[in-house]
From TrEMBL:
Name of the featured protein: Stage 0 sporulation protein A homolog
Modified residues (4-aspartylphosphate): D58
GO annotation, biological process: phosphorelay signal transduction system
PANTHER family linked to this entry: STRESS RESPONSE REGULATOR PROTEIN 1, TWO-COMPONENT RESPONSE REGULATOR-RELATED
Keyword field contains Cytoplasm: no
Primary role: May play the central regulatory role in sporulation. It may be an element of the effector pathway responsible for the activation of sporulation genes in response to nutritional stress. Spo0A may act in concert with spo0H (a sigma factor) to control the expression of some genes that are critical to the sporulation process.
One Pfam family here: Response_reg
SMART domains cross-referenced by the UniProt entry: REC (SM00448)
Organism for this UniProt entry: Clostridium tetanomorphum
């Protein structure tokens, strides 16, 4: 987040130099870059030359007032978050401004720097970052959707298999974007924190999933899948202890790369939540479903000295559950005495 904040630029507009000087002193030590203008005209000149993330403007100014300025900003720079500085006497004008140009927040004069001004500025920055991240994700998904649609239309020999993969991809996309919208509409601080992790997880997933979306079923041993997962986790994280309890020697047929991707993303999720001193115990259970179809159940128990709020884990694994549902599987979280357990169920075909 700090690196993203350093790329934020905030423009403060007020015709009173003492107000601008007060703001300039107040934001010393903040990571964002500040710009200052004493008129609407100067503000627009600055915006012509610089990408401004947030604009904070006074309402009552000569020549061009705050409302006129924000109307132009909304039209020319719709992604810029708009905020207002106002006195009590200007509340009627502020309300009109909110209705006309979509103001994110307004700060009343005189303000308290630590309690009012800085927190509101930080909230606007956070909203801007989340908005940009969601737009980036949406663009990435739309681009990949177009790619897969073109692939489906171009190959007669594999059209049915590709349509199935494409439809699964569309369903997963819809669930991912619906969750982004739900988080953005929430005012809960925890939701904003989780959204950043959620966006990072989705971005990582689609980056890797795009190369295997049309993967064919292959034969593999469950032991190899779990061994590859263990090696990958130990290579990436030093303070994670993994124990595998698997007696299966069956050769299975299914989407090995997808199963491997889900396990590794799940591993990244739990490490990012628990951060350090984490033990992961994986137990395997198998049961026949019908004919040669085998249901494999992985019980991944997380043991940590720190008591964590597992709601965050619950929200992030909900996406993996939606993904697995597209392939006759499921993923859910159980809170048990010894720790939190993630259950993954997936059906495969046993190979003789």
């Amino acid at each position: 987040m700090n690196n993203k904040v350093e790329n934020i630029s905030i423009l403060f507009v007020d015709d009173e130099q003492k107000i601008l000087s007060s703001i300039q002193r107040g934001i010393i030590g903040e990571k964002f870059k500040g710009f200052f203008a004493n008129s609407g005209k100067q503000a627009l000149e600055i915006m012509e030359e610089n990408e401004i993330s947030v604009i904070v403007t006074d309402m009552r100014m000569p020549e061009m007032d705050g409302l006129q300025l924000l109307k132009i900003v909304k039209e020319k720079y719709p992604d810029t978050i708009r905020m207002v500085l106002s006195g009590y006497a200007q509340l009627t004008q502020v309300i009109a401004t909110i209705n006309k140009v979509g103001v994110f927040k307004f700060i009343l004069k005189p303000w308290n720097l630590e309690d009012d001004f800085i927190p509101n500025i930080r909230e606007a920055m956070e909203y801007y970052i989340l908005k940009k991240e969601s737009e980036k994700l949406k663009g990435m998904l739309e681009k990949k959707n177009e790619l897969y649609h073109n692939l489906v239309m171009s190959s007669d020999r594999t059209v049915m298999e590709m349509k199935k993969g494409f439809n699964s991809f569309i369903n997963i996309n819809k669930y991912a974007l619906d969750n982004v919208k739900r988080f953005l509409n929430s005012n809960n601080d925890m939701s904003k924190e989780i959204l950043i992790k959620y966006l990072n997880m989705i971005e990582d997933f689609y980056d890797k999933y795009s190369s295997i979306v049309f993967e064919s079923s292959t034969s593999f041993m469950l032991e190899k899948l779990l061994s590859d997962f263990t090696i990958n986790m130990k290579d990436k994280y030093e303070n994670v202890n993994i124990q595998i309890y698997n007696k299966s020697e069956k050769v299975l047929k299914g989407r090995y790369k997808l199963a491997n991707l889900i396990l590794n993303i799940l591993g990244d999720i739990v490490v990012n939540i628990y951060e350090s001193n984490l033990s992961i115990v994986v137990m395997v259970n198998e049961s026949f479903v019908f004919n040669k179809e085998v249901q494999v159940e992985l019980f991944m128990t997380l043991l940590s000295k720190e008591k964590k709020d597992y709601r965050e884990l619950l929200i992030l694994t909900m996406f993996l559950n939606e993904l697995l549902k597209e392939f006759k599987g499921e993923c859910y979280v159980k809170e048990m005495d010894e720790g939190v357990t993630i259950v993954i169920k997936q059906k495969f075909i046993e190979v003789n």
